[in-house]
Amino acid sequence: MPFTLTPTYDETPRLRELVTRLRDYLDGELADYEAKLGLTHESRYTRDVLEPVWRRSRELGFYGIHLPPEHGGQGLSFTELGALKEEVGASGRVLQLSVLGDMGGPLRAGSILRYATREQLDRYLLPVIRAERACCFSLTETGAGSDVRAMTTTATPDGQGWRITGHKVFSSAGPFADFSVLIARVAGSDDYAAFLVDLDSPGCTVRDAETPMSGQHIESDIILDDCYVGPGQLLGEVGDGLRIGLGRVTANRLLHCPTVLGLTRRALALTLDFARTREVFGGPLAALQSIQHKVADMATGYYAARSMTYDGLAALDAGGRPRAEAFMSKLFVAETAFRIADEAVQIHGKAGLVRGSEVEWLFRSLRMFRVLTGSSEIQKNAIAHQLFLGDRN
Length: 393
Prior knowledge:
This protein is an alpha+beta fold. It is built from eleven helices and ten strands.
């Protein structure tokens, strides 16, 4: 995999064509849309703002592009999807997570399609793919993050249906979602179940979550107080809850990395531009050897992290189960991205410290990835587990 901050994908004509069209949309039409509305990464945006992006991305073939053709996608490989996610992350767009459907769209719903009944597909999931509805995912609780089995949200049988009580936090896309894929413990057992919960149901309240350090308003708390769900809203079977909630773990863990790589690439590109144009001591900042060494280390770290990630994605495409590699990639990408963002702020100096600076926002966002989707410490535990137990686990 050659090093470049603007991959051409010449060796893969289909991917080259997709990336070219995607860049045109991100840098042209979507950039103009965001500028017209005056959006920033910390804006509160509503369905009225998001739906046109979902629909337009769907028209252009990007929304749900990873899905099989029978669901309107192009059946992308993991490597191809990773490349598109990286391009979106590198674009600097405020609404980047709405283009491929990461935030409430097909990328959230796609992994659960195989569990859904025909009725559930028609009522819930296919409208998401068509950009008509949005969903969120509710697994995490205040006392149940990495240790998901500590959840206290409970589903109690009531006739053929269920009564759910509990409090979910960090439900991404919750502020503008129509329903949640919600995981609960079955009362009186050690089983877990997944439910499709309409967020306007009696007993269900969507509340603003605590604002993360990225400043984005994309998370909600989902509070359930004896909320009734019918038998047709049970996703899969009782006992499938954690399998659904943590499903496709290896693939999802690897596919988080390209988005972060894109943000990292953006931070590196901004830093190079700044160093070239910032005048110090009668010349450009880039002329200083100390700055040259910093950007050399930044670029080398990015290349290493990218190579690890795409090696893991290639293994998935070949039918492998790169579990240890997925943990390693998540760990290395998270830690390397943060170091690069930290250096980007350092090189920008005062310009990198002020709110409203893009590199300052990237620093805050990339810091979060060391915790989100499994902290670095959790990844290390899992890597050690793989090393000590090997094929016996």
